[in-house]
Each structure stands twice: as C-alpha cells, then as structure tokens.
Amino acid sequence: MLCRICQKEFIPNKYHPHQQVCLRLECQKIRQIQNEREWRIKNPDYFKFLGQEAAWREKRRRYNRLWKFTHKGSLREKEAGESHKVRHREYMREYMRKYRQIR
Predict the structure, then answer these.
(1) What's the pLDDT at 79?
(2) Which pLDDT does position 57 carry in this prediction?
(3) Which of 29, 31, 34, 92 sits at 20 to 30 Å (Cα–Cα) from 74?
(4) Continuous segment of H or E residues that includes residue 74
(5) pTM of the model
(6) Are residues 40 and 51 in the same domain?
C-alpha cells in the first residue's frame, strides 16, 4: 500500500487494515494537521461557544457561593456525616481485629 502523504510503500498495521499513512513522524504530523483542519471546517461554530461557557461558569460560581452561604446548616450536617463515616470505619477495624483474634 502507498502512503497517502509521501507516496512510499508501507505495510498497514494488522489491527488497522484501512491505514492510509505510514508510521514516519513527518507523515503522521502532516496527517494530524490535515485532520484538525478538516475538523475545524466541519465544526465552524465550536469555538464560538467558549466565551459563553466562561460566562456560564462565572454565573455558576456566584450561584454556588450564594447557596453555600444560605445553607450553612446543611453543610455542617454533611461534615457530621463524614465524621460518622470515620468513626464507623475505626469501629469496624477494631471489630475485625477482635474477630480475627477469636478464630
């Protein structure tokens, strides 16, 4: 099979029998650049949304700060739940230690 870029003969990878470009670094780099160019042509509006995404993130950040401020009690309950997990884990370790000693 001939390489699509350098026109030299190569053997395709057995796992990718439709391979069209040889494994030389120069050919692979050109193939990657061509693929990126084709993708940008197919998706012209993709990068237009990045500015909107940044605005959404900032709005979300403000919302999260406000939520944390208004729900301080529920956050303390969550921390208490996590401390319960730690205590339960310690209890189970001690329980299993005693259990293994009995056997």
Answers:
(1) 67
(2) 86
(3) 92
(4) helix 72-102
(5) 0.47
(6) no
Locate tokens 């310690």: which residue? 90
In this structure, the answer to whether residues 40 and 55 fall within a common structural domain is no
88 and 55 share one domain:
yes
> Running DSSP on this structure, what letter comes out for residue 44?
T
- Cα separation, 3 vs 9, whole angstroms: 6
Contacts for 6 with CB less than 8 Å, ≥ 6 apart = 22, 24, 26, 27
Which amino acid, residue 10?
Answer: F
* pLDDT per position as a tens digit, 6-62: 999 999 999 999 999 999 999 999 999 999 999 999 988 877 777 777 788 888 999
Lookup result for tokens 């395709």 = 12
